[in-house]
Design brief:
- This protein has helices at 25-28, 40-52, 64-72, 82-101, 115-119, 121-136, 159-169, 206-212, 225-236, 249-256, 271-281, 293-302, 346-352, 360-364; strands at 10-12, 18-23, 56-61, 108-113, 140-145, 174-179, 184-185, 197-198, 200-201, 240-245, 259-261, 263-265, 288-291, 311-315, 323-330, 333-341, 378-380.
- The chain is α/β, with parallel strands linked by helices and 382 residues long.
- The protein has 2 domains: 11-272, Carbamate kinase (3-Layer(aba) Sandwich); 282-380, PUA domain (Archaeosine Trna-guanine Transglycosylase, Chain: A, domain 4, Roll), CATH 2.30.130.10.
- The strands form 4 sheets. Strands 4-5-3-2-6-10-12-9 form an 8-stranded mixed beta sheet, with helices on both faces. A 5-stranded mixed beta sheet has the order 14-13-15-16-17. A two-stranded antiparallel sheet has the order 1-11.
- β15 (323-330) and β16 form a beta hairpin.
- α3 (64-72) packs across α4 (82-101) and α7 (159-169) packs parallel to α9 (225-236).
- Belongs to the glutamate 5-kinase family.
- This is Glutamate 5-kinase.
- It is an enzyme of class 2 (transferase).
Length: 382
């Protein structure tokens, strides 16, 4: 549709600092099963404009399997074996990254993830640290599911849901999903002329999922269910989702101008509140970290991270990535004051306790950052 024909009115985009842009293979695949810059160019221009304004963007991109088929001139076949898909993905990854690199004058970094990487808390933290470092270095991360090693029971299933997980992983403000339809409708507009556009969704109730139908069903909105699942995951993390038509040049241009045409999915609570709620309710591992009064004041009054210099001791046998209790030990005894995700194991915390952050690597031989618990992973108790 042209902009004049679109039933979705323009909205003003809220301000954002960091975003995830998900681009599906339908926007990248050429008729010969290879990759085409036709729609990717406009999206890349939106990314470039955002970067020029000091914002940060992470791209979640499909297309490796389609690119791999073009390399060996093999047509898509129904029910292709997992091994074939994995081989095609391996052949096509370089082409997909090359497509994105051609649009930018900064380095593009390829990041491949599996379900296991995001289910395992320590690997989750490692992935987050890597992505944050890439952004700090000025690189543009391009993420895809690692189809080369994924197996059926471990696959994330689709890049819509992967993008939502990544948005929470990197603490994004917004998730942009580029698709080949103008937004969310009450039913599939391609088969139902009475389908009504839905511009703004305050809360994703079961009724919306019923409108979407099952994945691939003709009654649904055309592959819309996984996009609703992604929006629900993002909302739970306090992140807004914007669903738009990436094949419409005018809709893509609007994004760089701070405007939006499509469907906006709002979170029930802000990002900080969602994060703190999660931190308060994740089960604790046995043991914990004992801190002094100075560290307790810095965390409670200044919102500071917990540094090794304020650590008195570590109890138990927790591991990096575990949710643990933080306890203050003073002349009044010992009491729980906070909980958070430890960047170091109990063994490591004991070795670096009372030491300066700059000494961590010389003591351990490695480091996961200067904080024992980062303030984003820390919540004070009442």
């Amino acid at each position: 549709m042209s902009q004049a024909e679109s039933p979705f009115a323009q909205q003003q985009l809220p301000s954002w600092r960091r975003a995830v842009l998900k681009v599906g293979s339908s926007l990248l695949a050429a008729e010969g099963e290879g990759l085409s810059p036709r729609h990717a160019l406009g999206l890349a221009q939106f990314v470039s404009a955002s970067l020029a304004e000091g914002r940060e963007v992470v791209i979640v991109s499909s297309g490796a399997v389609a690119a791999g088929r073009a390399v060996i001139h093999r047509k898509a076949t129904a029910g292709a074996a997992m091994a074939e898909r994995q081989a095609l993905a391996a052949l096509g990854q370089a082409q997909m990254i090359g497509l994105w690199q051609r649009f930018f004058d900064r380095p593009v970094a390829q990041v491949l993830l599996t379900h296991d990487d995001l289910r395992n808390r320590r690997r989750y933290l490692n992935a987050r640290a890597t992505l944050n470092e890439l952004l700090a270095l000025g690189a543009l991360p391009v993420i895809n599911e690692n189809d080369t090693v994924s197996v059926d029971e471990l696959k994330l299933g689709d890049n819509d849901n992967l993008a939502a997980v990544i948005a929470a992983l990197v603490d994004a403000d917004a998730l942009f999903i580029a698709t080949d339809i103008d937004g969310f409708y009450t039913s599939n507009p391609r088969v139902n002329a009475d389908a009504t556009p839905v511009q703004d969704v305050e809360a994703l109730t079961p009724e919306f999922f019923a409108m979407a139908g099952e994945a691939g069903s003709s009654a649904g909105t055309g592959g819309m269910r996984t996009k609703l699942e992604a929006a629900a995951k993002a909302a739970a993390a306090g992140i807004e989702t914007f669903l738009f038509n990436g094949t419409r040049a005018d809709a893509v241009r609007q994004l760089a101008q701070g405007r939006f045409s499509g469907t906006r999915f709002r979170p029930g609570q802000n990002r900080v509140a969602a994060r703190k709620h999660w931190l308060r309710h994740v089960p604790l591992e046995a043991g914990g970290i004992i801190v002094d009064a100075g560290a307790a004041r810095a965390m409670g009054e200044k919102g500071a991270s917990l540094l090794p210099g304020g650590v008195v001791a570590a109890e138990g046998d927790f591991r990096r990535g575990d949710m643990i209790e933080v306890r203050l030990r003073d002349e009044h005894g010992e009491r729980a004051i906070a909980r958070g995700v430890s960047q170091y194991s109990a063994v490591d915390v004991r070795r670096i306790a009372r030491r300066h952050s700059r000494d961590i690597e010389s003591i351990l031989g490695y480091n996961y950052g200067e904080n024992v618990i980062h303030r984003d992973d820390l919540v004070m108790l009442p």
